[in-house]
Known about the structure:
Elements: E1 7-10, H1 14-26, E2 31-34, H2 37-42, E3 51-55, H3 63-70, E4 79-83, H4 88-96, E5 101-104, H5 109-140, H6 145-155, H7 160-167, H8 171-185, H9 190-196
Parallel strand pairs: 1-2, 1-3, 3-4, 4-5
Helix pairs in contact: 6-8, 7-8
Amino acid sequence: MPNNRPICVVDDDEATRDALVWLFSTRELEAVAFESGEAFLADYHPDRFGCIVLDVRMPGLSGLEVFEQLKEHSYQPPVIFLTGHGDVPMAVGALKGGAADFIQKPFNDNQLVDMIERCLSGDEQARTRWAAKQSIDTRLGYLTPREREVMKLIIAGKLNKVIADELDISMKTVEVHRARILEKMGVKTAVELASLLGGTDT
């Protein structure tokens, strides 16, 4: 699925902002520009942009400070840092903190756009996984504490009789809990439940 979300450019230099918006338009990529980190954050929503291009050094909030605030949201689009020569160590630190990449000024136009397109593609895939996890988390929220206990034992492959013994409840109660768990989680079998929750922390 193509990513139709615009690119966000955050840079205090007007010439750089205009050049980047124009560059992206030549590859039929929409871009929105902001002159400061403060202006960007005031208008930011995780679902709005498919990729964010951040200048490292800006008056007020730096690119790194903006990046840290983005992490407070439940989802963060890929972030590419634009750096001057002296900013490379900072950019490397940002990579360790989860940034997608960094590119030095002056940059190669094709290299930057190719990187952007990879980020847009990666963002769409990451959003799909994130949305699926959000859906699972919502369904898990419907479970009672006892249902969660029973569910963990179901996933572990325990039979109803074993679950009843471990939790000191009746077989009938286990059966009722099992039915409610499957219904709330939107699955029909214990195998489907285990597959749905594979890799998640229940």
